[in-house]
Structure formats: C-alpha cells, structure tokens
Amino acid sequence: MTDPTPTRTLVIEREMPHPQEKIWRALTQGQLIEEWLMSNDFQPVVGHHFTFRATPVPGWDGVIDCEVLVVDPISRLSYTWGTLGLGSIVAWTLTPTQTGTRVRMEQSGFPSEESASYKGAKYGWQKFLGNLERIVERIG
Amino acid sequence: MPAAANHVFKALADPTRRSIFEGLTRDGEQTVHALTRRAGISQPAVSKHLLILKRARLVGHRHQGRETHYSARPQALAPLVDWMAQYGAFWQNRFDQLENLLNRMDK
C-alpha cells in the first residue's frame, strides 16, 4: 500500500575482556540471560517463541513477546522484540578482538524521526519520561 | 504512562493506521476520499482509523466547504522518540549487568 517506514536503529557496542564463547553463553542460556536482562523462556532455536518478563507497571504489563530469528554460534543471535504493540528486532554480533570480544547490539524497526519530519518539539513529556525511568529502574 | 502516550502507541500499533499516517506525512494534507482510495478499505473504516489517529493527536483536520482535509502532526511522535532515548539508557544498563555477570562466570 505504501513504502515501508524508514526506521531508526539503536546501536550499542562495547568491547569486553572476555572470550567470545563465554559471552555467547551469557546471551543464549536462559538462566544466565535472566541475570543480566530479564526472566525468560528463551531457547537458542530459530522460530522459538518466547517472552521476556519485567515487573509490570501502570500502562505496561511488562511482557515482551519475541521470536528467535538467527542463531549462528558463537557470533550472531537475533530475535524480534514486541511490546506495547510496537515491534522491533534485536540483533547481537560477537567479534573476537586482540583482548577479548566486541559485543554489538542493534535494535531496529522503530518509526524514525526522519520519516515523520520530527522537529524535536517537546510537549511536556516530563511525566512520561519519569514513568519510563521508573520502569527502567524497576526492571533493573 | 500518561493517556496521551498510550494513545500514540495504540494508534501506531495498527498497520493500516501507520500507513495512513505515513501517507499524510509524506504527501501532505488529504481528504477522506483520497485516503480511502489509497487505503483500499471502506470509507467508514478509514474514518474510524482517522478518529483514533486524531485522538492520539497524530492527525489534525480542517474543514473547507463540504470537505474535511486531514494532515499529519508528526510532533505528536515525541513520546516514541523519547521512548527510544530511554531504550538507549536501558541497554547501556544491561551491558553493565552483562559485564558484571561475565566477571562472575567461570572462565
């Protein structure tokens, strides 16, 4: 019907002084994932549907619906990430370095500023941001 | 989350409404007739979607003669943009926790 919406991508990259295999385990074993991300029923199987669960807060049930898209041991992992009716994709890439591993997380699929000519207007979203901060803290 | 942000999230959760919103953003103001032609669904269905977009303040309208012209109000996307910024903070925090875990794990 129309062209796909240009989307925003969030990239976070960090080099960690740990072997790639160890980081892969932390990204793909449910119990380990829970220790740094959220409780989950993840399985490293393409097509597996699972959820991440955070503490619910008013306006958000704390559930993130996901499906595994890519499992390429020990370098690439990707899953869909759906919450509040908005879908995105989370993709992990592990690359060995001289001293450890570069960990790259790319989350894409959000509506972009550009697609909507978003002008950076602020409309008093302080309360909204406050709520989000509390969400982040509570699931922290 | 305040009602306004909920309305924006809910309005954009539907692919037809996203498509209507994108069309208005890209091509500017349009009548409900023009939007119906493009959407390939009935006019009452389009009107219903427009109502939800208006409630989220993503779409504005003005009357001219017998026609109503609809236009996008992209500044209403502010909650989404801020949500993204928060996601950045969210993931940075998770990366910290991942590193903490790695430090605790057996070699």
Distance between the termini of chain A: 41 Å
Number of strands of chain B: 3
Contiguous runs where pLDDT drops below 50 for at least 5 residues of chain B: none
- Tell me, what's the shape of chain B? elongated
Under the CATH scheme, which class of chain A? Alpha Beta
Quickly count the domains of chain A. 1
SSE string of chain A, helix = H, strand = E? EHHEEEEEEH
Strand order of the largest sheet of chain A: 1-7-6-5-4-3-2
Give the full name of the CATH homologous superfamily of chain A: START domain
Record field, number of beta strands of chain A: 7
Secondary structure layout:
The complex is a heterodimer of chains A (140) and B (107).
Chain A: E1 7-16, H1 20-28, H2 30-36, E2 39-40, E3 49-53, E4 63-72, E5 76-83, E6 86-96, E7 101-111, H3 126-138
Antiparallel strand pairs in A: 1-7, 2-3, 3-4, 4-5, 5-6, 6-7
Chain B: H1 3-12, H2 15-27, E1 30-31, H3 32-39, H4 43-55, E2 59-64, E3 67-72, H5 78-104
Antiparallel strand pairs in B: 1-3, 2-3
Helix pairs in contact in B: 1-4, 2-4
Give a brief outline of the structure:
The complex is a heterodimer of chains A (140) and B (107). Chain A is of the alpha+beta class and 140 residues long.
Descriptive notes:
The complex is a heterodimer of chains A (140) and B (107). Helices cover 21% and strands 41% of the residues of chain A. By secondary structure, chain A is of the alpha+beta class. Chain A has a single domain (7-138), classed as Alpha-D-Glucose-1,6-Bisphosphate, Chain A, domain 4. In chain A, helix 1 (20-28) packs across helix 2. Chain B has a single domain (3-104), classed as Arc Repressor Mutant, subunit A. Chain B has helices spanning 3-12, 15-27, 32-39, 43-55, 78-104, and strands at 30-31, 59-64, 67-72. The longest helix of chain B has 27 residues, at 78-104. The model of chain B has no long low-confidence stretch (mean pLDDT 86). The chains are: A alpha+beta (140), B alpha+beta (107). Chains A and B meet through strand 1, helix 1, helix 2, strand 7 and helix 3 of A and helix 1, helix 2 and helix 5 of B.
